[in-house]
Amino acid sequence: MQPGLFPSATLAEFYRLALLLTGSSKKAESVMAETLHEVEPQLGQFRSETSRQAWLATRIRDRCLNNQNGDAPPAPRLLREELEPGAKTEILPIEAYLLAQRFHTLPEPERSALALFYLEFFSPAEIAQVLKMDPEELCGALGRARAMLQEALNGRPANGAPPA
After folding, report:
1. Which residues fall within 8 angstroms of residue 115, CB to CB, at 6 or more apart?
2. Domain containing 163 — which CATH number?
3. Does 90 map to a domain?
4. DSSP letter at 134?
């Protein structure tokens, strides 16, 4: 990768996006490596950092979704493996584990919309552009995704009704 195209913090955020979409650190690393190798020669054509980031986010998302082969991503494990050698294994708080597990059951485009939104990498207008949605569709997708996660975590529908 050419130096200066993306700061390391930006690449870390793209990795988090791939991890949220695939549910697997190995798959996320593979997606990142393949995508960066594929798109590196073309990234210089973008004049603004925002357009370069949006284009790369789109490519990462496409690759993540195409690599699923119709299967839902696996639920994350309770133990998080740190990337640094020799780092201690960390037990995720149960709420974070349940949220991560439920996140991977969200349908598309809700999963991608929520991942991009909570990474706080793009504005809502830019997210809509990356996902090829109009702003109203994005708002609806985010609302549905939040409601589905709330329902899954509470064991009841988001409107407060008891479970059926």
Report:
1. 17, 20, 21, 103
2. 1.10.10
3. no
4. -
Dihedral Cα 82, 116, 98, 64, nearest 10 deg: -70
Q: From 57, 71, 56, select the one nearest 22 (Cα to Cα).
A: 71
Domain that holds residue 1: 1-74
Helix (H) or strand (E) holding 91: strand 90-91
Tell me the angle at which helices 110-118 and 49-66 cross, rounded to the nearest 10 degrees. Answer: 140
Q: How many domains does the chain have?
A: 2
Pair (4, 60) in one structural domain? yes
pTM attached to this predicted model: 0.68
**136 has pLDDT over 50:** yes
Instruction: Say if residue 57 is in the same domain as residue 123.
Output: no
